[in-house]
Write a structure and sequence with these properties.
Radius of gyration: 22 Å
Strand content: under 5%
Structural class: mainly alpha
CATH architecture: Orthogonal Bundle
Shape: elongated
CATH class: Mainly Alpha
CATH topology: MetI-like fold
Order of helices and strands: HHHHHHHHHH
Largest sheet: none
CATH superfamily: MetI-like
Oligomer: single chain
Length: about 270
């Protein structure tokens, strides 16, 4: 915990803005009182450009784009963060076990190599398409994509730390493998793990949007940035730019925010 405090103790305006953006999209729907229900259509006011009544305009069926963009943020961020966190929980022990010089570690890496022989994004698309496009299956697809990434990263970092002198000394002094993992390995890979988790969440947001864009992500009437962009893309050429622009900007803002946090963590961790 001391390392985490050292990483985040110093204020950085860009990091503060990044956290503010993510908190706004992640929790905004809980404290913002929407003037227009994000799940109620108004056909009489379809494809209205941004104005005083509809801040971001309306889409092709009369949904309020502003409220839908905020609601979609809560859903997409929940899916992306849940998938990333579960992938870390699975990948961390697998990576640590794979860093040992044992037959079990060799078996883990062989299984990982076999698994990664398939294009993971294509495999995720197939799974969601076959099992149904609901939030649970989209989260599972995110986990499927990210577990190998975290396993390899943690194994690589753990192998580097295991070759250092203080690990050799701890082993010579009779320290157990459990003590070496929690006392020496975990603190030294934590910064890299947090940074990778942040940038992986950014990538997961794009994956969730891509799945929704091709029609196998979050099911309507639930809002998703990808499905909003898909629905509005056909109207871009006729001048109704707002239906796709605002959810696209939301994706861009969240991806940049997670990348900013990741870079900040890496810089602070390297200076510790």
């Amino acid at each position: 915990m001391s390392i985490i405090k050292k990483i985040f103790v110093q204020k950085n305006i860009f990091v503060i803005i990044s956290f503010a953006i993510l908190i706004f999209f992640g929790t905004g729907s809980f404290f913002i009182s929407f003037e227009h229900d994000p799940y109620v259509t108004d056909i009489a006011n379809r494809l209205l450009e941004p104005n005083d009544i509809y801040l971001f305009g309306t889409d092709e069926v009369g949904f309020d784009v502003f409220s839908r963009t905020i609601i979609a943020g809560r859903i997409d961020l929940f899916i992306s963060l849940s998938g990333t966190i579960i992938a870390v929980i699975i990948g961390l022990p697998l990576g640590l076990l794979a860093s040992e010089k044992t037959k079990r570690a060799e078996r883990i890496m062989k299984m990982l190599d076999m698994f990664q022989a398939f294009p993971l994004l294509v495999l995720a698309i197939v799974i969601v398409a076959m099992w149904g496009n609901n939030i649970r299956n989209v989260i599972f697809a995110i986990i499927l994509i990210n577990v190998p990434r975290f396993t390899r990263l943690i194994r690589s970092e753990a192998l580097t730390v295991r070759e250092t002198r203080f690990i050799e000394v701890a082993t010579a002094m009779g320290a157990s493998n459990t003590r070496i993992i929690f006392k020496h390995l975990m603190p030294n890979i934590l910064g890299t793990l947090l940074a990778q988790a942040s940038i992986t969440t950014a990538h997961s947001i794009v994956v969730v949007a891509a799945l929704s864009f091709i029609g196998i992500g979050v099911v309507p009437p639930e809002a998703s940035w990808g499905s909003m962009i898909r629905a509005g893309s056909q109207y871009m050429t006729t001048g109704q730019w707002w239906t796709s622009l605002f959810p696209g900007l939301a994706i861009l803002a969240c991806v940049i925010s997670f990348n900013t946090i990741s870079q900040y963590i890496l810089r602070k961790y390297e200076s510790i």
